[in-house]
Amino acid sequence: MSPRRANPQLAARRREALVKAGYAEILEKGISGTTIDSVVTRAGSSKGAALYYFRTKDDLLYAVFEWLLSQIDRTLDEVANSDQSPRARLASELEVLFHSPDVNRKLYFVLLEFTTVSLRSERFRSAWAAFFDRCRNRDMGIIQEGIRQQQFRNVNAEDVARTIRALVDGYCLQWIAGESAASLESYRDCCRSVLGAYLLR
After folding, report:
1. Using CA atoms in the order 201, 91, 142, 98, what is the torsion angle rounded to 10 degrees?
2. Whether residue 171 is found in the same domain as residue 109
3. Considering its fold, how many domains does the chain have in total?
């Protein structure tokens, strides 16, 4: 009797189910309260299956982190590769990044959890650094095209790209901290105004 052949699609679905369950667990309990057992229970999987994909909790956490960053990248890539003008693409990017109170609160809760882990782990820190590099390169492309089309002033595109990420994360963190009763939309509008003053002729 020949051995059973592995089904790559099924394996990928099972792994992704565990990763998504891990994200949900972190969102509900934080990283310290998340265990492989709790993820297995949420995913309706087995401990053996989880350990087949992830030898340690750290491996599972890293997979969740990679998955989360890839989701953000995919959405922002769609905006950057659209047929819109550079100015419209930048506006669309801000709409995505300031998505909604519920989505942003959940997203930044988990990202902040991983930021803490990154302070102690080179693997997680490197993943963060690579993500910021992709954000910067993606935004530089939009800005450079806008400069060529004379939609934006002749600015340093790399400086602007770094500023976009700093503004978005800074405004979102201020909103989450609840320093005032201001809405998420008001912070988005502040970000848009600052970039407009920087970029527009």
Report:
1. 130
2. yes
3. 2
Q: What would the pLDDT profile of 175-189 be if each residue is shown by its tens digit?
A: 998 856 689 999 999
Q: What's 175's domain CATH number?
A: 1.10.357.10
Among 43, 46, 44, smallest CA distance to 24 is for 43
CB 82 within 8 A of CB 89: yes
Do both 140 and 157 map to the same domain?
yes
Whether the pLDDT of residue 3 is over 50: the answer is: no
What confidence tens digit (pLDDT) does each residue in 13-56 have?
999 999 999 999 999 999 999 999 999 999 998 899 899 999 99
Domain hosting 194: range is: 56-199
Contact in structure between 108 and 182 (CB atoms under 8 Å): no
Euclidean distance between the first and the last CA atom of the chain, given in angstroms as a whole number: 73
| Spatial distance between the Cα atoms of 124 and 61, rounded to a whole number of angstroms | 9
**Residue 160 and residue 70 share a domain:** yes
Q: What are phi and psi of 4, to 5 degrees?
A: -65, 135
